[in-house]
Specification:
By secondary structure, the chain is mainly alpha-helical. Helix content is about 50%, strand content about 10%. It has a two-stranded antiparallel ribbon.
Length: about 190
């Protein structure tokens, strides 16, 4: 099974919310299922974004899902699979010159660059895009909004909102940890344009 089909199967199995099929139809019209997850860090390759989303889902479910804590499979699926929806239509492929170490010749090589047509932030942009199609619960919105943790620009500006969200919503902490685990532990070696 390919990454896209795995994503669609998980989403359709676990998410029954009104508007979810319209959201999937919109995703199909974007580059979401082919885009990289970053320009050069993690999953900077074709299909990287969907690979990363699935990785976050697996870590979130394996390490942090607890029925005893009242965790909800639909909420976990939405947050994991859609937290980086803001990266759809965000990256472009370009070329640059790079010296071939074996031949000493300069060659054009592909790389990813950012072309943000809707610069609305990161987590907040994902929340905005999802809510164009289906409503999020408050804890889902907080988790997606703050999944970047201390890497979010507004945190570096001195705000306390993230800390307050983490104190009130365990899903926000769990999604952030799953995203970190996926990015820095599971996705090493996935940063080449293919």
């Amino acid at each position: 099974m390919d990454y896209k089909q795995e994503f669609l199967n998980l989403f359709r199995e676990n998410v029954k919310r009104e508007g979810s099929e319209k959201l999937l139809a919109w995703l199909e019209k974007t580059d979401f299922f082919h885009a990289p997850a970053s320009t050069k860090f993690h999953c900077a390759c074709e299909y990287g974004l969907v690979m990363h989303s699935l990785s976050v889902y697996k870590v979130l479910m394996e390490k942090y899902f607890s029925e005893e804590d009242g965790d909800n499979i639909e909420s976990f699926t939405i947050c994991a699979l859609l937290h980086d929806i803001c990266k759809a239509q965000y990256y472009k492929t370009s070329t640059r010159n790079q010296k071939n170490e074996e031949t000493g010749q300069w060659e054009k090589v592909p790389y990813y660059t950012v072309e943000d047509l809707f610069p609305y932030g990161h987590g907040e942009k994902s929340v905005f895009l999802i809510e164009r199609f289906m409503r999020l619960k408050l804890d889902e919105a907080m988790a997606i909004r703050w999944h970047m943790g201390g890497f979010d620009d507004s945190v570096r500006a001195g705000g306390y909102a993230m800390s307050q969200a983490f104190e009130k919503y365990s899903l926000a902490v769990k999604l952030h940890l799953a995203d970190l685990h996926s990015t820095y532990l599971n996705e090493k070696g996935t940063s080449a344009v293919r």
